[in-house]
Amino acid sequence: APMLRTGAFLPAIGNHEKEKPREREEYVDRFWGGAGFDGNLVDGYYRFEAGGVWFFALNTEIELGDKSVQGSWLAEKLEDAAAKPDYRFSVIYMHRPFVTCGDSGQNDVLRKRYEPLFAKTKVKLIVQAHMHGYERFELNDITYVTSAGGGSLLGDIDENNEFAREKERAI
């Protein structure tokens, strides 16, 4: 309660919001009950704007492909935001990463599918989690930041890092 009295808390749904019975429903009620965000709060994706910057929270626990309801919503709403007269850029935040060197795996299919749309609509930052570690990548004029320690033990941040594996083999 004290944290919620001091500022906004605008989460993205992840795999930990469904570990107990009714946890997901309680989560939705606690954080978005009647908030009026543009999106589908029952399914956990929404957007909001501040100072010409649009923020898109995605739910990576449900389908996000281009034929999905969430994927269609994302494409439509990114285009809509980019057409606004005061638009500056967009930020996307989500739980499961599109790109990582760590042990949770990345989603090359979705990244390749959405990068042209992200470039067209000036998505400049993607904040992602799930891999228990911290990473930063700059790919095709988009900065990807993984921030996912959350007080847990850090994961293997080099599991999918070919450079690190080559270095180990040389030793």
Describe the structure.
Helix content is 30%, strand content 22%. It is α/β, with parallel strands linked by helices. A seven-stranded mixed beta sheet has the order 1-2-3-4-5-7-6, covered by helices on one side. Strand 4, helix 4 (108-120) and strand 5 form a beta-alpha-beta unit. The longest helix is centred in the middle third of the chain and has 14 residues, at 69-82. 27% of the residues are buried. The mean pLDDT is 84.
- In terms of DSSP E residues, the strand content is 15-25%
Radius of gyration: 17 Å
Order of helices and strands: HHEEEHEHEEEH
Q: DSSP helix count?
A: 5
Shape annotation: globular
Could you give the topology of this structure?
Layout: H1 2-6, H2 23-32, E1 38-40, E2 45-50, E3 53-57, H3 69-82, E4 89-93, H4 108-120, E5 123-128, E6 134-139, E7 142-147, H5 162-170
Parallel strand pairs: 3-4, 4-5, 5-7
Antiparallel strand pairs: 1-2, 2-3, 6-7
Which structural traits does this protein have?
30% helix; globular; 171 residues; seven-stranded mixed β-sheet; alpha/beta; 5 helices; 7 strands; single chain
In brief, what are we looking at here?
With 171 residues, the protein is α/β, with parallel strands linked by helices. The chain has helices at residues 2-6, 23-32, 69-82, 108-120, 162-170; strands at 38-40, 45-50, 53-57, 89-93, 123-128, 134-139, 142-147.
